[in-house]
Write a structure and sequence with these properties.
mainly alpha, Rna Polymerase Sigma Factor, Chain: A, 2 domains, 2 strands, about 70% helix, about 5% strand, RNA_pol_sigma_r3/r4-like, DNA binding, WH-like_DNA-bd_sf
Length: about 180
């Protein structure tokens, strides 16, 4: 494990935007954050999604990290908040109780209305225009993950790269895409 001074140097490099520093932080703390999330969710896929969101948020806000605290503690705090937000989002389900029957049924209407379909198509077309502003390698990794729904492992195999490299590149690509979208407004 890396000591506090080494972590501080890596964090400083990350603040300067060095991709190798982001990879080191991801590799050093991935399993800690994932284990924490898995203990909360008991769902491997959800734990991985929240872990990825944790690193995305941490890397995006790395300038806000206070050097007086342990970096792992900061990551776990971010992860805990993302987990709590996801729980709050799940509470908005509708429950129907049948009279004379003690069973509860969750009702979910996932079918989009005709208006929703038009909005979705327009938003998708606009998103694709924004994605085309990225470098080809960034376009490819976003396409593989979100449009072709490849797993991180499948992307790593297809691009002949490590999983941690794929995760960092995807985080960076998403951040750049977000900036492109924000600058449009």
């Amino acid at each position: 494990m890396t000591n506090k001074e080494e972590i501080q140097l890596i964090v400083n490099d990350a603040r300067l935007g060095k991709e190798s520093a982001f990879k080191k932080l991801l590799n050093t703390y991935w399993s800690d954050v994932f284990r924490f999330q898995f203990s909360k969710t008991n769902d491997e896929e959800e734990a991985e999604d929240i872990t990825i969101k944790t690193f995305a948020k941490a890397f995006d806000k790395i300038d806000l990290y206070n050097d007086n605290y342990n970096f792992k503690t900061w990551l776990i705090s971010i992860s805990k908040n993302i987990f709590l937000d996801s729980i709050r989002g799940k509470r908005n389900e509708t429950v129907s109780l049948n009279k004379g029957n003690s069973e509860a049924y969750y009702i979910s209407d996932d079918a989009p209305s005709p208006e929703d379909k038009i909005i979705i198509e327009q938003n998708l077309a606009e998103l694709l225009r924004h994605i085309k502003k990225l470098k080809p390698a960034q376009q490819e990794i976003i396409n593989l993950r979100y449009f072709q729904e490849y797993s991180y492992k499948e992307i790593a195999e297809k691009l002949n790269e490590s999983m941690s490299s794929v995760k960092v590149k995807l985080l960076r690509s998403k951040k750049l895409l977000s900036e492109i979208i924000e600058n449009k407004k």
